[in-house]
C-alpha cells in the first residue's frame, strides 16, 4: 500500500527543520510528501521548498480553512493510505511512520493517530494535559471520540465516503465522529510518537477553546449549562492542584488555575454563541 503524507505549515520554525529531517530518516520509505503552507514569514516555506519544491502548495493565510485545505490536498493524491504530519510535529524515532500505518495494513484499524508528547519547554499544565489526553484509560473513560490530525493515518476509502467539514474548527474531531458512526475503527498507536505542543498565551487559549465550544454545539448539539460547566471546572481545578503538589511544583498553581478557568469560560461562551444565546466576542 502506497502512502501520501500531507504536511501543513505556517511559521513552524525551527520545528519544521527537525520534522523534515526525521521524516527523511523513516524506515518506511514508500511515501510521497505533499506540503501546503499558508503564508509563513519565518523561513518555513523556504525550508520546505528546498526539500520538496515540486509538491509544495502555497496559499494566503486568509485562505486557510482547515477542512477545505485537507480535502483539497487529499484530492491531489492518488495513494490508498493518507498520513497527516504537521510541520511542527517531530517524529521521535525512525519507526514513527511504519508503526503508525501498521494497524491499517494489518486490518486491525481504519484510522490511527500517534501519541503526542509535550515539548521539553511546555508549561507544566500543558504537559499534564498532553499526558492525560494520550492516556488510553482516559480516551475510553472521558473522550472516546478524541482524534487529532496532527499526526495520523487513515484509509483513503473513508475520505471518499466522508469529507472533512469545511466550516468551523475541530474538523478532525467532526470527521472522526462521522466515520465512527459509519463503522470505522480508530486506534491510538502508543509506540508511534511525536513531539508537539503549544504554549499559547491566555488570549490565544481563549480563542482556541471558544471555537471548540462552537464546534461542540455543532457536532454534539451540546447546550451551554453554566452549572455543569462550573462543576467540571472546579473538579479539574482540584485535580490540577493535587497533581502539582504531588509533583512538587506548587509555584505552577496560580497559572494552572488561570489556564483551566480560561478553558471552561471560553468553551461555555462558545456554546452560548453557537446556540444563539449571546453575541460573539470582539476580535
Short overview:
This protein is an alpha/beta fold. It is built from eleven helices and eight strands.
Which key phrases capture this entry?
single chain; alpha/beta; Spore Coat Polysaccharide Biosynthesis Protein SpsA, Chain A; 2 domains; 8 strands; globular
Structural summary, described in words:
The chain folds into two domains: 3-195, Spore Coat Polysaccharide Biosynthesis Protein SpsA, Chain A, CATH 3.90.550.10; 202-274, no CATH class. The protein is built from eleven helices and eight strands. It has helices at residues 15-24, 44-51, 66-75, 96-106, 124-133, 136-141, 156-161, 171-181, 202-220, 226-246, 253-274, and strands at residues 3-9, 31-37, 56-58, 81-85, 90-91, 111-117, 151-155, 186-195. The termini are far apart. The model has no long low-confidence stretch (mean pLDDT 92).
